[in-house]
Structure formats: C-alpha cells, structure tokens
C-alpha cells in the first residue's frame, strides 16, 4: 500500500495492522501523520517495507517491530520466484521507490527481495530498541533526523544482511559498537551529527567509507584524519595531513 506524498493527517489508523495482515509494503511517507506509531503495525508479519518517513510522528520506536517476521526470516530465491509468478499471473507489475544508501532507488521485479524500514524525519525519541537487531534479514534501516538518545545497540552486528544504515542527526551517545565492524555487506553508513565518542572500530568495510559518515561527533581513527590518543588526551587532527593541506592552500 503506497499513500505517500499526500496531506493525510491524524494518527496512523489501527485497522492497518488488524485488517491488512498480509500487507507486504506500507509506504506512508511525506504526509502529516502525528502521534505515536501504533503497536498494531507490529501485527503485519509479512511486511517487507515500512516507510513512515517525513511525518510528525513522536514517542518511542515500538520494540515490537522485531515481530515483523518478513524482515527476520531468511528467504531463498524460490520465494522471489513464487511472488513473481503470482504477479505476472495477474498481469500486475509491482514496483516501488525506496530511499536507501543515501539515494532513491526504483525496484521492480526484484522488489520481493527488498527489506527496508525508514522512520526518518519525524520527532521520535528515546532509545533505539535493541530488539530491532532481531530483524536479521533487514537490509536498510533509516532512523535519521529524529530525537533519538542513548547508544547504538551493542549487538547491531547480528543484522548480517544490513547494507544501508543511517542514524544521522540524532542525539545518540557512547561508543560505536565493535560488532558494527562485522557487517560485511554494509556499503552505506551515516552516523554523523550525534554525540558519539571514542575510536571508530577497525575493519576494511568501515575504513572504506567516506569520512563524512562520521563527522559531527567526537570520534577518532580512520577514515577520519583525527588520531586517537593513547595517553588520555583529547583526540587531535593528524598534524602531517594538516600541514599538507596548508601547503596546498
């Protein structure tokens, strides 16, 4: 169900979760929905795409989103072929535009393999529920531009299929979990402009990301030019690189 970019307001109807139990795509972005995210959304066990971005939603992110088994159970290619058979059988081609990896991507025949949660650009607060890490088949998670606090869940490395992760422009604190370094499919990460501290975990995956993914925090280590202190002093920018930049200028 795609009702994006309208002037719909009020709360998200409870009946969406209680009557549309077979729903696989719920896209309500760019509306004027307000209030809390109803826990009835968690009843949509087949849901693969949940996009509530760019609304006026507030309160906590429901921990029961971990019940969305469509994003937690491994799906083989046979599932993709079954869905596509049903689609073509009824001469209906499913497609959706999905915000992921920092851009807007259009999915057609491969839509049945997409798993995405986008709750960005709202007024959501409190912690990121650790229960979300149970969604081990989720490939894209965007919680940016909210008012989230607390730390990034320690076991985020359990989300082994994750390709795109955006927690930017919140008030998250603490250190980056070391388990983030084991997400081997992760090719887009943005945790900029939070209150994160400490050393960026070392991995080929994270070191290959752009430094802009980490700015606006008190972080150190590659890919940033700020070296981590070993003697308890404040992290400082690499003096050699700073000197090179001044020469170039």
Q: What can you tell me about this protein's structure?
A:
The chain has helices at about 15-20, 75-90, 205, 240-249, and strands at about 10, 25, 30-35, 50, 55-60, 95-100, 105, 115-120, 125, 140, 145-150, 165, 175, 190, 195-200, 220, 225, 235. About 15% of the residues lie in helices and about 25% in strands. The strands form five sheets. The protein has a six-stranded parallel beta sheet with strand order 2-4-8-10-12-14, with no helix packed on it. The chain has a five-stranded parallel beta sheet with strand order 1-3-5-9-11, with no helix packed on it. The longest helix has 13 residues, at about 75-90. A hairpin with an 8-residue loop joins β17 and β18 (about 235). By secondary structure, it is α/β, with parallel strands linked by helices.
């Amino acid at each position: 169900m795609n009702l994006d970019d309208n002037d719909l307001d009020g709360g998200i109807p409870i009946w969406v979760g209680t009557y549309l139990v077979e729903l696989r795509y719920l896209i309500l972005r760019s509306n004027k929905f307000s209030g809390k995210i109803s826990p009835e959304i968690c009843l949509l066990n087949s849901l693969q795409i949940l996009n509530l971005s760019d609304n006026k939603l507030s309160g906590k992110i429901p921990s029961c989103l971990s019940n969305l088994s469509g994003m937690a159970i491994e799906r083989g290619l046979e599932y993709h072929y079954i869905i596509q058979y049903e689609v073509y059988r009824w001469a209906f081609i499913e497609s959706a535009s999905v915000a992921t990896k920092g851009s807007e991507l259009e999915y057609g025949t491969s839509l049945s393999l997409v798993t995405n949660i986008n709750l960005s650009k709202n007024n959501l607060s409190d912690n990121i529920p650790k229960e979300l890490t149970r969604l081990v088949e989720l490939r894209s998670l965007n919680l940016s531009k909210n008012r989230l606090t607390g730390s990034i869940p320690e076991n985020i490395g359990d989300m082994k299929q994750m390709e795109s992760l955006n927690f930017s422009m919140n008030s998250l604190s603490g250190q980056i979990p070391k388990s983030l370094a084991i997400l081997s499919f992760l090719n887009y990460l943005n945790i900029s402009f939070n209150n994160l501290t400490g050393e960026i975990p070392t991995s080929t995956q994270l070191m290959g990301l752009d430094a802009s993914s980490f700015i606006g925090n008190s972080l150190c280590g590659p890919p940033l030019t700020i070296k981590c202190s070993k003697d308890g002093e404040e992290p400082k920018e690499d003096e050699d690189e700073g000197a090179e930049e001044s020469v170039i200028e």
